[in-house]
Amino acid sequence: MNKITQLFNIKYPIIQAGMVWNSGYKLASAVSNAGGLGLIGAGSMYPEVLREHIQKCKKATDKPFGVNIPMLYPNIEELMTIIVEEGVKIVFTSAGNPKTWTSFLKEKGITVVHVVSSSVFALNAQEAGVDAIVAEGFEAGGHNGREETTTFTLIPMVKEKINIPLIAAGGIATGRGMLAALVLGADGVQIGSRFAASVESSAHMNFKNKIIETNDGDTQLTLKELAPVRLIKNKFYDDVQQLYAQCPTKEELAELLGRSRAKRGMFEGDLIEGELEIGQIAGIIHEIKPAVEIINEIMHDFNLAKNDLTKFNF
User: Could you read off the pLDDT of 233-270 as tens digits, one per residue?
Assistant: First the structure.
């Protein structure tokens, strides 16, 4: 056991990211049943939809699972109430100040993890009383840090500053990537993009197929004035770049983004006008597989890579 498997009572130190429009109860329960920690992504759910997914997840697995909540969510009070009422034991918070909800959740006996993009934010989260940190490099998909700090540099910098368990995220989809993160000082890994292209992901098949077609250089971090997001380059992305050429106001960018753009792309499968969020690591994802196969493959790759280290005897 290591710090992360002990904290969550799981077999492998692998957390499936709570991605909007991808992480419903089917994916979360499949990952938990396979020995990782599955997370339901509450960011794209109305409160009662979240309740339904939690209840279905409890029926689909007897293993630990959690919920990821972006703190920018407009009805966050309702979500927190549902989490307490439904007896959720693990909550990952992101996109906001950890001091806002950590003590409330801890008082209810809930394990709290906060996602950060810098060592300064990691220290703030530790001071707020969280149980662990996810440090996410800018290779990651979805919403991201403005600083553009890569995972390879972020993990050792955060490790130097904190004394609670550390989970690495951003650009990790293989066992070798997991081993590299642990060598750099992480206690576990959070993986998003690889699970977005899983059988159980709630994303549209068009989006899943687009992920496995994506190569290096096909994504870009943009919309920093609103909330930085890594997108696959499509017509919507091109529209954003054309607007940038005109030095737009924040309001003009928000107007172009509009409402439900991510739902349109990832959940409804509009590959032209939709917002397609994925990490740079998509370039090595070539197949849509069940979550259990993904985890078994990661662990097999991890153990092979670990054994390979013996050849580096200088």
Answer: 999 999 999 999 999 999 999 999 988 999 999 999 99
Chain centroid, CA 80 distance in Å: 19
Nearest Cα neighbor of 95 from 119, 117, 70, 76 is 70
CB environment 126-136: b (16+ within 10 A), e (fewer): bebebbbbbbb
What pTM does this model have?
A: 0.96
Quickly count: other Cβ atoms within 10 Å of residue 247's Cβ: 7
Question: Hey, what amino acid is at 99?
Answer: K
Domain ranges of the chain: 3-203+282-311, 216-281
What does the pLDDT average to over 160-182? 98
* 8 Å CB contact between 191 and 158: no
Q: In the CATH scheme, what architecture does the domain 3-203+282-311 have?
A: Alpha-Beta Barrel (3.20)
Strand locations in 210-305, DSSP E?
219-222, 229-232
Reported as a pLDDT band with limits 50, 70 and 90, residue 302 is very high
* C-alpha to C-alpha distance for 80 and 91, rounded to whole angstroms: 10
Do 141 and 108 meet the contact criterion of CB atoms below 8 Å apart? no
Q: How many Å apart are CA 269 and CA 279, to the nearest integer? A: 18
- Burial letters 256-268, b for 16+ CB under 10 A, else e: bbeeebbbbbbbb
Are 261 and 275 in contact by the 8 Å Cβ rule? The answer is yes
Q: Which of 26, 1, 2, 50 is nearest to 198 (CA)?
A: 26
Residue (of 156, 162, 154, 167) closest to 126 by Cα position: 162
Q: What is the pLDDT of residues 20-54, one digit of tens each?
A: 999 999 999 999 999 999 999 999 999 999 999 99
38-41/132-136 β-pairing: unpaired
H-helix or E-strand spanning residue 170: none
Give 37's strand partners: 15
> CA 281 → CA 129, 140, 227, 277, distances in Å?
32, 8, 21, 12
- Give the C-alpha separation, 19 to 98, whole Å: 19
